[in-house]
Amino acid sequence: MIIITSIVGSGSYSSKSAHRAYFFGSITFEPWRRLWKSWAPNKCKIFLWLAIRNRCWTADRLAKRGLPHPDKCPLCDQEKETIQHLLASCVVGRQVWFSLFAPLNLSGPVLRQHESSFADWWHRTIKRVKKKDGKGVNSLIILGARKI
Prior knowledge:
The chain is mainly α. The chain is about 55% helix and about 0% strand. The protein has 2 domains: about 1-30, no CATH class; about 30-145, no CATH class. The protein is built from 9 helices and no strands.
């Protein structure tokens, strides 16, 4: 009860407060609603879920396990291959994003050259889009990530 009181603050017990106490301190996945409520196919949603959690079998993960892997990104041959690099900072990946957004007059959300996190970029992009267009843009981002 002491833990729940310090987390919830009200001192009242509920199943919601117990659930929050159980997962206190764990890493949350902020864009889950944007991901699972989109129109994209489930296999694309699952791919992006894994990508944001850095669970895709890119060179960095292969190297950790001692498996054969390319030294550089196979798309740009400039940096080490990580899922964050492929989706956020790779020259080829940024070109894909530009090609997807330009016909929709959404040039603002194009990635910067040294973008650190795909999830952060996604969050900033959705903030710039009108609410009524959000679900479509989310779906476009998920499909674009899968394409890359």
